[in-house]
Amino acid sequence: MKLPLQDTIWGRIGIWLVRLPSWLAAFALFSLMVMTFSDVILRSVINDPIESATELTRIFMAVIVFASLPLVSVRGEQIVVDLFDGFFSKGAARLRDGLVNLLSGGLLFWPAFKVYGLAMRALKYGDVTEYLRIPQVYITMFIAFFTFLTAGVMVARGLYILFVGQPTAHTDHQVT
Asked: What pLDDT digit, counting tens, does each position of 107-166 carry?
């Protein structure tokens, strides 16, 4: 199924902007897998592990989690406990879902601003990672950017649910 904007330049740019964080997370996951495999082999065979494995694991995990958050949020694929869904009519459920997305997105701006403040502090003090000496501002700004993006996506999704209705699910194979 083709989307209406897919044939325009803006539609193609939008599709790539949606896919880019997914590819980034996939690359980080693959790199984490290769690094962990190599670390185990080096540790077992020649008793010489990768010294910066813990540091790289933390960075890769941050990339995987925070690059995935906006797409998970725009698709509404968060983990949901639906114990009370039977008590809500369709209209009330729409109102509830819209308000929950708005509130969650609005509240997510607070940690985004806090992480941004930490990034500015890391930049000011020149903080670097222990083994690889990577400036911590890079990963902290990455986390702040994707947290801001996720907050914006959740607010937009909440407004969409309230004023238009529940969005239909579009998987990647439908977009291509």
From this structure: 999 999 999 999 999 999 999 988 899 999 999 999 999 999 999 999 999 998 888 877
Number of domains in the chain: 1
Evaluate whether 6 touches 12 at the Cβ level (below 8 Å). yes
Q: At which residue do the structure tokens 């941004």 appear?
A: 116
Q: Which residue has the tokens 């790199």?
A: 31
**Per-residue buried b or exposed e for 33-61, using 16+ beta carbons within 10 Å of the residue's own CB:** eebeeebeeeeeeeeeebebbeebeebbe
Range of the domain at 54: 4-175
Q: What are phi and psi of 7, to 5 degrees?
A: -85, -5
Its pTM stands at 0.82
